[in-house]
User: What shape does this take?
Amino acid sequence: MSMHANNPKPQTPRARIRPADLPEVRGKYITEQSLSGLTWFRVGGDADVIYLPADADDLSAFLKNLATDIPVTVLGAGSNTLARDAGVRGVVIRLGRSFADIAREGETDIRAGAGALDVRVAAMAGDAGLSGLEFFSGIPGSVGGALAMNAGAYGRETADVLVRVEAVTLDGEKRELTPDALNLGYRTNGYRDRVIYTAAVLRGLPADQNTIKTQMDEIADKRGTSQPVKSRTGGSTFKNPGGASPDGPKAWKLIDAAGCRGLRVGDAQVSDLHCNFLINHGKASAANIETLGETVRQRVLETSDIDLDWEIRRIGEVAHGA
Ligand SMILES: Cc1cc2nc3c(=O)[nH]c(=O)nc-3n(C[C@H](O)[C@H](O)[C@H](O)COP(=O)(O)OP(=O)(O)OC[C@H]3O[C@@H](n4cnc5c(N)ncnc54)[C@H](O)[C@@H]3O)c2cc1C
Assistant: This one.
């Protein structure tokens, strides 16, 4: 099997997969479900099959017994993903409630299932009097998504607090990996698309609960005024070309300089508030959003000679004629 390619070009249509083509599992198969309900942009066609594993053993057995030509795509909270209009062929794996437990481990650590939301991890760390994980309170993804993207904000990133991860390889082997092995960099992960994370152990530092809460409140205030957090969006569309460096070129500045603030394609628009965010005003298709992103990339290339790299993950197939 292979992880789904992040390929913007129309692909040769492939036969739809049905649950009957898949191994027997203890988890659940769902069909005819639009990905628009599972992604923040609220766009996207159906997945052939969505698989909700019962636990890591179920996931491992599924992967061991899956025919090698069936593609798998992993989806977390869908806050960094644009699902294309013709949907996703093969199996979309989603780690749901059975992977959402968060528990304290020892004095300083928190073990969180990959399906747990980052905001809940931050809240739990705060309640436990552990600082250092406050930045998660502003990231609307899951722990699995944070590991895959090395999510970060305000000068901190997942790699800074990671002790170890539990994962299942694409051929179904359960593994524990250290941050070194993952080779995490700015919004990248050396294991990208090679494993499915099932849990992470994160480390904080004992601190006063009120100080932690104040920091989280500050983050919420900053976000509310600088990002369209209540919109249908995918977060930062492009990586900053200067990486995490505070002095490097920022994608939003380049987009602004290229005159793209507020630019529209159909019901998709470059946010007026933060121009590295694209917004679906309600009726945009995935094609509208992707075309808008590609137009922005082209204009930035023409004005600044910098080729922006998509941070948003695009999955699935372009609708015929789009
Ligand atoms: C309003 C808003 C604000 C945001 N602010 C930030 C920010 O400040 N900093 C930041 O870094 N990001 C930010 N984001 C982007 C996004 O929240 C992060 O990238 C987040 O980590 C994605 O997690 P997710 O669970 O939603 O992943 P998804 O969008 O579902 O998936 C993203 C990638 O992770 C992979 N993935 C997900 N789960 C697993 C797993 N269990 N195993 C293996 N791979 C997996 C998917 O295959 C995909 O490639 C923001 C997004 C929004 C909408």
Notes: The CA atoms of residues 108 and 204 lie 5 Å apart. The two ends are 28 Å apart (CA to CA).
